[in-house]
Write a structure and sequence with these properties.
Number of strands: 17
Shape: globular
Number of domains: 3
Strand content: 25-35%
Number of helices: 9
CATH architecture of the largest domain: 3-Layer(aba) Sandwich
Largest sheet: 6 strands, antiparallel
Structural class: alpha/beta
CATH superfamily of the largest domain: Nucleotide-binding domain of ferredoxin-NADP reductase (FNR) module
Bound molecules: flavin-adenine dinucleotide
CATH class of the largest domain: Alpha Beta
Length: 338
């Protein structure tokens, strides 16, 4: 069936015309407006929530499980689910309107551990990117092998925003994962890649509070970007402490870089902790989960902020511990790698 053109009014000012019948997500993408989404339209990641003003019907059964009653009242919908049948009006945050699609060259791929690599990309077009330390991009894979559609996956940028002509990503291989298998087994230095962004609201809040940073595995990426972007004075004032959790010594990386950072930045402390060190590790550092050792290093949580990144299980446990220690939930910021 042929659909008529419809109009999308954005923030009451910008108007775009698109063919009707497509999802809001696809239609915005045609105009290079990229709403984050990682589940390929399955309504499971819930990243593509958009505030709608008018023109959409009732909430669909596929949307209902991921929308809270408050979101439903406010007209929030999943852009990957709602289709455009008539003119609509929506609201988008300004930051989303400045996301772009980037082409970049793979400059260097470095092994950090047996299952984690550091990827350096040099931008081709646009030639520079403007992001806040802690934000992420969505990497687009081409079709390869038996994977017959492009997918996009989120990766936090681990470099610093002042190096605006490049993007560094720290990626952990997920067995059978579509994007990471491509990046580990197919992608070569010199290859061109595409990604969109920047996205996310995980960044350092402007305050004088002590920063308690906690990450596991590749969750180090946004924390590295944040801490390396802070000035010497900010570090002296905020006294960040970074707890990095790993299973055994073979899962640790960039330890020397952090020790060097510690020497160069009085006020900063780095605490790696192994949950299950191998006997051969001869590990003399902290043993246990990060949640079990925080109070050995931080005695006063009353004026602290939490910056957490890693798997949902680890994050939930850390939020629990920090709130019990007295850090209000609204002062705990995180990115969950689910
Ligand atoms: C905001 C954000 C930032 C992130 N930043 C980083 C980062 O900096 N570094 C990093 O390493 N990761 C990061 N992640 C995680 C990343 O986005 C991916 O989820 C991860 O790399 C896996 O992607 P993949 O395509 O390789 O795996 P997927 O293909 O998504 O597969 C994930 C799992 O599902 C299984 N699976 C896949 N397809 C099927 C199927 N059809 N049926 C059953 N099971 C299936 C796979 O076996 C695998 O175990 C981030 C996530 C978020 C949300």
């Amino acid at each position: 069936m042929d659909h008529q053109e419809v109009e999308i009014a954005i923030n009451g000012e910008r108007k775009i015309r698109v063919p009707g019948g497509k999802t809001l997500l696809e239609s915005l993408k045609q105009h290079k407006i990229f709403v984050p989404a990682t589940c390929g339209g399955r309504a499971t990641c819930a990243y593509c929530k958009v505030k709608t003003i008018s023109g959409f019907g009732a909430v669909l059964p596929t949307e209902a499980p991921v929308l809270s009653p408050e979101e439903t009242r406010q007209g929030v919908r999943l852009a990957c689910q709602v289709k455009l049948q008539s003119d609509v009006a929506i609201e988008l945050p300004d930051a989303l309107l400045s996301t772009r699609e980037y082409r970049a060259r793979t400059d260097k791929i470095t092994d950090l551990t047996y299952d984690t690599k550091l990827f350096h990309f040099k931008l081709i077009a646009p030639a520079t990117i403007n992001y806040r330390a802690g934000q992420y991009i969505q990497f687009l894979t081409p079709e390869y092998g038996h994977v017959c559609e492009s997918v996009c996956r989120s990766y936090s940028v681990c470099g610093v925003p002042t190096e605006s002509d490049r993007v560094e990503l720290m990626v952990r291989l997920v067995p059978e994962g579509i994007c990471t298998t491509y990046m580990f087994n197919r992608l070569q230095e010199g290859d061109e890649v595409r990604f969109i962004g920047p996205f996310g609201d995980f960044y350092v809040r402007d305050s004088d509070r002590r920063m308690i940073c906690i990450a596991g595995g590749s969750g180090m990426a946004p924390i590295r970007s944040m801490l390396r972007s802070m000035t010497q004075q900010e570090i002296a004032r905020r006294k960040p402490i970074f707890f990095f959790g790993a299973r055994a010594k073979k899962d640790l990386f960039m330890i020397e870089e952090w020790r060097e950072f510690e020497r160069a930045h009085p006020g900063f402390r780095f605490v790696p902790a192994l949950s299950r060190p191998d006997p051969d590790d001869r590990w003399e550092g902290e043993v246990g989960r990060v949640t079990e050792i925080i109070d050995k290093y931080v005695s006063d949580f009353s004026n602290a902020e939490g910056y957490l990144c890693g798997s949902p299980g680890m994050l939930n446990a850390c939020v629990d511990v920090l709130t019990k220690m007295g850090v209000p939930e609204e002062r705990i910021y995180y990115d969950k790698y689910d």
